[in-house]
Amino acid sequence: MISSGDTAILLDAGIKLGEVEEHPTIPDDLLRRIDAVFVTHAHLDHSGYLPHLFSAGYTGKLYATKPTLELINVMLADYMRISNPQNVSKDGLARLHKSYEIVEYGETVRIKGMKVTLIPAGHILGSAMIHVTDGKHSLLYTGDINLSKTRLLDGADTKNIVADTLITESTYGAKDDVAPSEGAVAKKMLTDIKETLLNGNKVIIPSFAVGKGQEVLLLLDDFMNSGALPKVPIYVDGMINKAMRIHRHNVIYCRKELQRKILMSDSDPFKSSNFFPVESRQARSKAASEDGASIIVTTSGMLKGGPVVYYLQRLAGNPGNKIIVVGYQAEGTPGRALLDGATTLKFEHATVHIKLEVRSYHLSGHADRPHLEAMIRSIKTLKNVFIIHGEKSKSEALSGDIQKTYKVIVPELGTAYDV
């Protein structure tokens, strides 16, 4: 929460998914006094608290880009169905859906004594950094950022940002968090997938529905169309299918090269003939049980639930099959346990014994350590840096290496800081 004078705004309203779901510590009476809420992007760790916020009595507006608001609808519907969170009312949900205000990149919104501007963040479709000024001081909140160009998006726009204070993520803030090139990762991943397919077996790729899922599918589509991978069905299960449609409708927010590909050729990567959407139980059963090689791209990305559990139940017992982990795995999640060598995964309604091969490839939508440092150095007049959104060791590692240049704080929950 950022406040100046009589103005207070909330930047993101997320939940922390792990072994135990964690919620923000803001008291409900304070939520009701907030003047506006801005959300950087649709992932639940940035948007999942919105139903509670509006149920607690918040009656203001929710500001975000058009794709973010559309993706929030999909993410929250799935979250409500699976988690059935307490203290969320029908009236609160109704207020939430009536509160949407679209903000375009570069557009400035005035909230009483503050001016707020959204800047492309390069993380997922519609993601934004948030710049706030009260006329005396200025602040940049990164949300989740990626400075590298991907198949979908250009990197974050860090040019000509002026701010006294920075609030930055630190997902990959450790000294050795240096991402290899996407080309090198893709080449190794291709070899792994091809080996399994040529042996007639199946590859499971668990993925986040928004962002990672689309990057993986466009990568596989390129491989298959070039002949680098054999032509086998790519089954797409879970919310990834809805998210693909939203990406197609909002392609103007994607890279120019992707827009031109759709406009100037018959090849639409969001509707590839290589993709087979799984939208029924029968289709899911067919994808898991049919003879022959295939690739299954499915939610959830950290194995916390969703269709991936079904596929693991059916396919994890075959040592010839393979699971490829492509995203960040939070502490306390089944995905992290799998990477740490667990041979048994326990889910709510199933226990799965892991005999298939496990591989991990870094296809991140986050800035790595060198890019975090470059982003920090690029901000003119910067004095204060608050480091959040990372495991404690990552945040502290980043803090220790930049504190000679800036006043650096790894903030504590419930603490107010003056800048």
What is the topology?
Elements: E1 2-4, E2 7-11, H1 28-31, E3 36-38, H2 44-47, H3 50-55, E4 62-64, H4 66-83, H5 90-98, E5 100-102, E6 108-111, E7 114-120, E8 128-133, E9 138-141, E10 165-168, H6 182-198, E11 202-206, H7 212-226, E12 234-237, H8 240-249, H9 256-264, E13 275-278, H10 281-289, E14 294-298, H11 307-315, E15 322-325, H12 334-339, E16 344-346, E17 351-353, E18 357-360, H13 369-378, E19 384-387, H14 392-402, E20 407-409
Parallel strand pairs: 2-3, 3-4, 4-5, 9-10, 10-19, 11-14, 11-15, 12-13, 12-14, 15-18, 19-20
Antiparallel strand pairs: 1-2, 6-7, 7-8, 8-9, 16-17
Cα-atom radius of gyration: 21 Å
**% residues in beta strands:** 15-25%
Kindly name the structural category: alpha/beta
Instruction: Give the strand line-up of the largest sheet.
Output: 6-7-8-9-10-19-20
Q: Given the structure, what is the number of helices?
A: 14
* Proportion in helices: 25-40%
The CATH homologous superfamily of the largest domain is termed Ribonuclease Z/Hydroxyacylglutathione hydrolase-like
What is the total tally of β strands?
Answer: 20
Indicate the CATH architecture of the largest domain.
4-Layer Sandwich
CATH class type of the largest domain: Alpha Beta
| Nearest-integer average pLDDT | 95
Low-confidence stretches: none
What is the 3D shape? Answer: globular
Q: Biggest β-sheet: count, sense, barrel? A: 7 strands, mixed
Within the CATH hierarchy, at the fold level, what is the topology of the largest domain? Metallo-beta-lactamase, Chain A
Into how many domains do the coordinates divide? 2
Distance linking N and C termini: 13 Å
